[in-house]
Amino acid sequence: MHAGRRNSDMTLVLFDNSVYGLTKGQASPTTPKGDKMKLAYYGVPEAPIHPISLAIQYGATFAARGFSAAPAELTPLLAQAIQHRGFSLVQVISPCVTFRGKFKPLEEVKLNRADVPADHDVSDRSAAMTLADQTDQVYLGVLYERTDLPTYEDLMLDIETEARVEGICSVEDVLDNFVR
């Protein structure tokens, strides 16, 4: 623990409606493959990205998914993400009922949603990514959480401490040392 610690928390809430609605129904990176839209008349050809897997892959230490039509479950999930020390991502599934073509995404999510299994180990990175990538079920809840990993700020403070030990104390000193 470093003295004089600054807040190192960062929470990103991704409201994911799987469409760019302001452009009147353009497919987004999370639009399901095959979904027919104005600008994808014959269906979206690409497989969608999975934001939770991506966040975990790039170092998020908290990843969860909620559903906008279930505010009683979503609210504590958001609070947990905000209280998490480190980078957290909450993907909020919020289906667009206007621009998603013939699909009925709201009903689809309601039918296919499932709570993260009670026996799921939230510290298991691979298991979290497997749940996040499922297409037949939309798992809601905390998929991944690690509290034992250093935050980005921890790592930067370690570098700062090492630099101070070497006598590099100011930005000017760092820049002078870099230019040499």
Characterise this structure.
- It is built from six helices and seven strands, in the order E-E-E-H-E-H-E-H-E-H-E-H-H.
- It has helices at 51-57, 71-83, 105-112, 125-132, 152-165, 171-179, and strands at residues 10-16, 19-20, 26-27, 62-67, 87-93, 113-115, 138-145.
- Mean pLDDT is 85; it is low at 1-7.
- It starts with 9 loop residues before the first strand and ends with a helix.
- Helix content is 33%, strand content 19%.
- It has a five-stranded mixed β-sheet with strand order 1-5-4-7-6, with helices on both faces. A two-stranded antiparallel ribbon has the order 2-3.
- With 180 residues, the chain is of the alpha/beta class.
- It is elongated and about 65 Å long.
- It has two domains: 10-147, no CATH class; 150-180, no CATH class.
Write the layout of secondary structure elements.
Layout (H helix, E strand, L loop, with lengths): L9 E7 L2 E2 L5 E2 L23 H7 L4 E6 L3 H13 L3 E7 L11 H8 E3 L9 H8 L5 E8 L6 H14 L5 H9 L1
Parallel strand pairs: 1-5, 4-5, 6-7
Antiparallel strand pairs: 2-3, 4-7
Helix pairs in contact: 1-4
Structural domain tally: 2
Strand content: 15-25%
Adjacency order of strands in the biggest sheet:
1-5-4-7-6
Q: Order of helices and strands, N to C?
A: EEEHEHEHEHEHH
